[in-house]
Specification:
single chain; mainly alpha
């Protein structure tokens, strides 16, 4: 009878560990999905910005130069404001690394 009770308690403890690990893996998967979505959106935006900034500029008057310069200054503000998107991607990356480190070195291995 004692062995049966011990088997039941060991099984229950293992089940709890597995459920905890399942939740950790779900969190990691959610972070990977978030990272992929943010990185994809940023990559598309970056490619468009690169195309816009490498287009040749042709001006035939001083007024056209002023308009082009004003447009470039406005665009530079947009570029600087998008740096928060890079920080969000980086934060997600840091979270993933922390969880991976925990899983590799933090007693997350199921026996």
């Amino acid at each position: 009878m004692f062995r049966w009770q011990r088997l039941l308690s060991d099984a229950d403890a293992r089940k709890k560990r597995l459920l905890r690990l399942q939740e950790q893996y779900r969190q990691v998967e959610d972070l990977y999905l978030t990272f992929a979505k943010k990185a994809s959106a940023f990559n598309s935006w970056f490619e468009n910005a690169e195309e816009d900034l490498t287009d040749p500029v042709r001006c035939n008057s001083v007024e056209e130069i002023k308009v082009s310069l004003a447009s470039l200054l406005t665009y530079s503000v947009v570029i600087w404001s998008s740096s928060s998107g890079v920080w969000c991607i980086n934060c997600t990356h840091v979270q993933l690394n922390a969880l991976d480190h925990f899983q590799l070195y933090g007693n997350a291995i199921v026996n």
